[in-house]
Amino acid sequence: MAAIEKSDHDIVHSEDIETHSPTNSTAVDETKAEHEGVREERTTPKAWLCIFFLVMTFGSPFWATPTTAAMSSQLLTKLGQVELSSWVIPCITTCATISILIFGANSDLFGRRYFLLAANLVTAVGYIVCARAHNTSMLIAGLSLNGFGSGMAGVALIAVPELIPNKYRHIGVVLADGFVYVMIVIGPVVGRYAIINSDSRWQYVYWGGFVFTMIAFIGLFIFYQPPKHPRGVPWKEAVRGLDWVGAILFTIGAILVLVGMVYTSYIPATDKRVIICLVVGFVLIIAFGLWERFSGVRFPLCPEEIFSSHKGREFGVPFCLTFIIVGFFYGTAVIYPTMLNAFYIDANTSISTQLLLTLPANLALPLGAMLLVAFGRKIGHWKITMIASTFSLVLFGCLLALMTPYNKVTMITFVTLSQLSYGWAAYLSVTYTQLGVPQTMLGLSGGLAGTARYAGGAVASACYSSAISNGIAERGAVLIPKAALAAGIPQSSMAAVSAAAGLGAAALEKIPGVTPQGAEAIGTAYKYAVAYGLRNAALASMAFGVVGIILACFCEDIGPKMNEKIETFLENDALAEKNKFH
């Protein structure tokens, strides 16, 4: 138990001790023990209040993602510039990938408070721009600000767990995503209902996000006062030692790579724009890696020592595992809604049924996280559960390759089990990365882990989308004309039939010579082409999965690090003197 400073009322004068009876002496000892207990490390009520506002801060930018995704097709029709649809969600992840590494790493030098307050302000401005958008370009600008704020808010993912004992670190990581779970479930519902009207009610989705964000800002501004120098370095000295070159190389390189990957979703991969973005981007990323390794800059964004610690098993392996697990998760996240829209949702499907079909994936993920919270510490054996959850994630995700247009229950079961496994594996892998570095480099860990989450998702989404679209095009070129000719449709209409195959029976029946029976046959052929593309994506995810299982086997056991120690205390609260740096 840590020593305490004695105040005047703690001093027991010698003459008093001599006149006390043994009973009174025992009372004094109990009183002293009680005072010592007060100073014992614990999470105070003010710390819990700050945790609540930190969770709000981390969750507030995310509100734009599920709501916008749910109403994007109708919203872009209202705003115009539908050709920009491929950028609506990727603009968020691209901006977040950049900002979370830079601000997460530098929060070790300048403290968490100002970055988190700035995150709320940037996010709030983003919501205003989105709500006032009168075209798609303006909407994308607002969402980009939202993504930038989301990356900055990623500092909360480390700020929450450091306020509670290390033995509950996995709970802290899950807790930081608390409001994100709520938004995953209700966001699609709110988005779909907000856009079904012909008026501008969709704007209230973003105004609601603005109000939520400002509440988080006010709460943090009033109550959250963490150490200003978590690494013990004066700010002027930190500014002189900042990794300016590394930040520029990473920012430009990552933007070019991610933009190039978005391009591949709607233009050929051989297009010069794709090639230039990817080649130049990867060259800059390689240059960034070499700079971090050999420059000797005082405060690098990616210090070599944390990656090489324990031959890479302490942080390097969990970092790569986080990237892989998120990448695999995006396979299911892309496959499942594509499956629903192609096979089970059409113009006659009610809104309630559509929303019901989103629940298996949306509820399974937080359920898996809750299982980690409830049973992670009771089960222990952290390395074994890391391997088991990764294996389960990969197994059920790869089983989606068995998809046909008619085995809905089986596929929903596999999706649910895969998402359930992800809820455990993802948060445990982040716990590994946080406990794999010294407390003075926790921001670096959070920035790198956050980059792995966002970048892994962006890379995987591009890979899976390409696998699906290429598979549909390949198999559709065979199945659709075959079905059309069998239905008696003339060869001259093949181009129009192929273009309208995925648009539904109503679009097909407008083509001369296409009967309702012919439209049904073509629709069935198109479904099998989609199933083939989705199978390709599921098989592609196996590459991520196998590597992930191997990495999980090389992780260390974090059990000895899951102790009673609290790493950080608020400077405006009890126990502030326990902070190593202030």
From TrEMBL:
Keyword set, alphabetical order: Membrane, Transmembrane, Transmembrane helix, Transport
Gene Ontology CC, one term: plasma membrane
Topology with respect to the bilayer: Multi-pass membrane protein
Protein's name according to its UniProt entry: MFS general substrate transporter
Listed transmembrane segments: 47-64, 84-103, 140-160, 172-193, 205-224, 244-267, 273-294, 315-336, 356-375, 387-406, 537-555
Source organism phylogeny: Eukaryota, Fungi, Dikarya, Ascomycota, Pezizomycotina
Domain Major facilitator superfamily (MFS) profile positions: 43-516
Subcellular location: Membrane
Organism per entry: Lophium mytilinum
Region called Disordered, residue ranges: 1-39
Any GO MF annotation of the entry: transmembrane transporter activity
Main location, first listed in the record: membrane
Superkingdom, natural source: Eukaryota
UniProt feature, compositional bias: Basic and acidic residues: 1-19, 29-39
